[in-house]
């Protein structure tokens, strides 16, 4: 890249990239760092020709990317985005989207390279397992512990071998081994070099590393303080509070005294060695996968189990008291499950539509509704009139006077035509009126619903039942059902 500049078409006056000069050798790993909005993502977009640079030159082996076939260029580039998108298809199909015309063998090889083949194979349907919209039915990282996470990172490191890699780093520790680290600020390259060299300069990269390190320590301290308070409240047992579990022939036994050690920092908390108790109560991710299940380990449960493992507590038995150290943490879980079940039952309750509110929203179009209802009422009267005319027309054939029969037949034919034409006009006006009223009501409902959604607190959107897809469906489908209900079969 030589003196590359870029501005988005929607904001031509704002320069995002300002004179970027960057040379990447084949097989190198380049790390891009910098504050938010400095142009890291835009630089990658220009490399992939998702956007054309407004100035300068971008070449691959001295060939301008403008002269390259865009389809060929895209086939040479693989992208791992920050938030991968999963479609509502099988795991195999999601993998195949990375390469057009991928064979089943290539899909399996890609899964092995990503260290995911064993996990996928242990699922009941294997590569045919549906992941749901956005991966809702199967979370790719829900069963990862620290060991699995290292394996995934190792798989990514292996995938970089023999390839030219450009990484946008948010966690600076992930690019310390990069060949070249590029620090950007305000669309310009401020400094570049290896990790050790940039740390010696104490420039932008050094400041970013220090800021992230200090922020991490502050978060760990705050996190550890929270868990210490939580543990102190929950683990407050002594001889009098914990009943004896019993042991000898006489049924007696010594009481249990707990000495809970609360770590001072989160790093100490997370590094506490697990004991046999923890392993027996917490199955590994691999065991969960073999059973066809996934789980999400909450930080609270993880930390508390670490503290429990530091205590000399014997394994639980069927006679373990309900309020023993083993069961005290299970009480909250049972209460949470009961609360979730109760919430699910409430969600399944179908609420009736408020007709009074619907009539109030339709008030501006009352004359259209009245016209439609009156029109269909008249149309019903016309149907009754047709039946009467039909019965009268049948009687004329009992007359022996031929001329009289012809005269009355012509009369009833004209009456049939008149009634049919009038019915056509009435039906058209009534249907048109109700359709217009229904469309206007649908527009109002969507506007009101959208306004209500936009006025909600952020916590509202954190609920699973209030996801973007569900709320969009309510705006698109629910209001349309009201529209179809008002229009009826017309």
UniProtKB/TrEMBL annotation:
Keywords recorded for this protein, A-Z: ATP-binding, Membrane, Nucleotide-binding, Transmembrane, Transmembrane helix
Q: Name a single GO biological process.
A: oligopeptide export from mitochondrion
Membrane topology classification: Multi-pass membrane protein
Which InterPro entries is this protein grouped with?
A: AAA+_ATPase (IPR003593), ABC1_TM_dom (IPR011527), ABC1_TM_sf (IPR036640), ABC_transporter-like_ATP-bd (IPR003439), P-loop_NTPase (IPR027417), Type_1_exporter (IPR039421)
One Pfam entry name:
ABC_tran
List, for all copies, the residue spans of the domain called ABC transmembrane type-1: 370-490
* Segments passing through the bilayer: 366-390, 410-438
SUPFAM superfamilies cross-referenced by the UniProt entry: ABC transporter transmembrane region, P-loop containing nucleoside triphosphate hydrolases
Ranges for domain ABC transporter = 1-211
Q: Annotated Gene Ontology MF terms? A: ABC-type oligopeptide transporter activity; ATP binding; ATP hydrolysis activity
Q: Where in the cell is it found?
A: Membrane
> Which GO CC annotations does the UniProt entry carry?
mitochondrial inner membrane
- Look up keyword Membrane and say if it applies: yes
Locate the region Disordered. 273-293
Query: What is the protein name given in its UniProt record?
Result: ABC transmembrane type-1 domain-containing protein
Natural source organism = Amphimedon queenslandica
